[in-house]
Design a protein that fits this description.
Helices cover 3% and strands 39% of the residues. The chain is mostly beta strands. The strands form eight sheets. A seven-stranded antiparallel β-sheet has the order 9-10-13-18-15-16-20. A six-stranded antiparallel β-sheet has the order 8-11-12-22-14-17. The protein is elongated, with a radius of gyration of 28 Å.
Length: 421
Amino acid sequence: MATILKAGNVASGAQITSDATGILEIRTGTGAGTTAITVGTDQAVTFAAGTTVSSLTTSGAVSAGSLTVNSNNISAVNSLGFRNRIINGAMMIDQRNNGASVTMNPNVNGNMFTVDRFRTGFFGTTYSSTAATLQQVTDAPTGFVNSLKITSTSTITPDANKLGAFMVQNIEGFNVADLGWGAAGAVTVTISFWVKASKTGTMSVSLENGATTRSYLTTVSISAANTWEFKTVTIAGDTTGTWEKGTSNGVSVTFGLMTNGSWLAGTGGSWSGTRALLSTSQTNFIATNGDNISITGVQLEAGSVATPFERRDYGRELIMAQRYFRFAGGGTGRATSSSATEIIQMLSPQMRATPSATLVSGTDAVLEPGIAFRAITGVSVAGGVNNNNAVLLGTSGSTGMTTGNVVLTPGNNGISLSAEL
């Protein structure tokens, strides 16, 4: 028991019931009352669930399962750094396109990156050759600057050929290993995001393991057209299945755009041993020319509470994104002939895996210092010691170089390096 101090609801005022435990309870209400505050013999103060405290000063620790401070939720399981397992959730890093609109031909490039770490996929065939555009835009809810916008530029009717479309981020296993999925004690997670669509309807949200043998599908409702809406879903951690805890894909976070109702479709609501990423009630948000949908503020965190979006500085977010994609720059090598080079490209920060090299623009892609920039027509990761710390790039198609001369990668976005999941 305890000594009880109860606010009186009669003319006699406060009521005191004493005992010898040394514990004090403060109660309010009628009858026996409801405990609001308990003070232990060690001076520890416990507030009842749901208590609102306008001001609290303490010299010791404050312990709570969940706190609301200035209208912001703080969850005990993720109150320190790297709450958000999503990289570039605010859509502010766009290394590939720097804000330019990208036209997608789903028949050719139906699964592509726009802003860093987010891949948009149109699956199937017989789409229009210019079915949609993807772009980092400056339309965003309060507190954000950018969003990723997908706009239909044709009529898209899902069928046996046009299977479906979604946007996804694959999270590296290292970054979700602590969730302990695949075993007892798997941690619950909460996904939160802002979305704006030109029509109302149902949007699929799903999680899937890298082996594509476990998935959880749920939905959110978009209730107002052309209006930014905040959405959250909470999903209990999966206690079965195989979940990557290293450099491969740990979990895919997917947002549905359209479906033909059968491809990767399901009703959801529980973990499944089949691939169910798109709800049978999914709305086609890109059905007609001009239809569009935008998303930003994407966060996946441990716990059952959607806390405020974790804001990391631009430089830190860029470094995190460059683990998966970057442009070559600062590499040093030599001309092996008048038309070819070998260049050592150091990778700092370290990339997720040995990257592949792609020629984005051959114009001035190589510099022969003191002489001239050189155009190239091809690039590859050449033989030798290649890893996630450094690669040997081989370029070809130049003219006029002097064999043995020093050459550099000038960092003008001519050669891209990718270790994407």
